[in-house]
Fold this protein.
Amino acid sequence: MKQYPANEPEYRLSRIRKMMEERELDAMVFYSCQWKIEVIHYVANLRILGEEACMVLPREGEPTLYISEPWDLKRAREESWVEDIVVCTENLMETAGKCAASYGKNIGIVGVEQMKGGEYRALLRGLSGKKITNEYAALDELCKVKTPWEVEIMRKCAKLADDAYLAEINALRVGVSEFELISELEYAMKKGGADENFQMIGMGTNLPSMNRAKENYLKMGDFVLTEITPIIGCITYATQLCRTVKMGEATPLEREKHKLLCDALEYALSKAKAGIRAKDLVIWQNEVIGAAGYEKYCHPPYMRSRGHNFGLGLINLSEDNEEILQEDTILVVHPNQMIPEVGYLVCGITVRFTKDGVERLSSLPTEMYEAIPN
């Protein structure tokens, strides 16, 4: 069943066509393979399950979507907003190339990095004699500003992260493994409608960082660090919640050091709004943490990033990123890092930037949770 607002296809494709006009493109070819689906998901509202898919979008006229598996045609017609869907079990890329070539001489391509060599050569045969440009960066820039429907999707995603964190707290007990804990998180999110989850976890004391789950069991006095990242549709629609839990009562020192990170987060968010530079969020978080004597630890290898988003429209919060954050950009902001006295600690929240400030997509507090057994 098609589940999107009636105006979303025109709203989204008109933004792409405006970009095409500015870049003097007659048509664009969008490509996704099975393991990296976000391009086709964005332009055609299709989560591909087959080997590959390709969409041709003329500057004027209706798009054509090419898919590689006949068995996926029914679902594609149910989900995608593209009306003209063609199954190509052979010569998909050459066929798509010839279609794009029929619209003019200037053709933009998005997704060439995921094509196999044979697929790319087939596309070039179809586009023989045309001027071809790689337009991934142009689409990526456009995707930094979310449509109203995308904002709603990400609000739902953030609610799933909140639900997963509450499920984590309820599942905490001495002896629980990282795998078991993640299973509880995954169940809560997928029950609520998430398609996937990218999960990082750390369990123990004096942790150097978080990682993927391993054979590790919770003990009294351990920290549990989690980055909970539910995905709806594709990785572009992922939000993240970063939280620190103490199994047992935290020491005053542990509470103090975690509060330092929370204070850094709150200070940065209190100043944040559309129109600031990406680097400003880094500077503001580092000001608070550095003033407490940890300036050295505000840089790799003691931390990875002060924030980012996922998929198309990627923005990394780094000290040298001068780009301006726009209204309806959505990012996770997290001052996660090593504090030498207690180890790695985390707190973070996904926010939407507005002209007046930020909208917090999580309703949960950022402070450390202490799991005290009965």
Remarks:
- The domain at 148-371 is CATH 3.90.230.10 (Creatine Amidinohydrolase).
- The mean pLDDT is 96.
- The longest strand covers residues 27-33.
- Residues 195 and 232 are 5 Å apart (CA to CA).
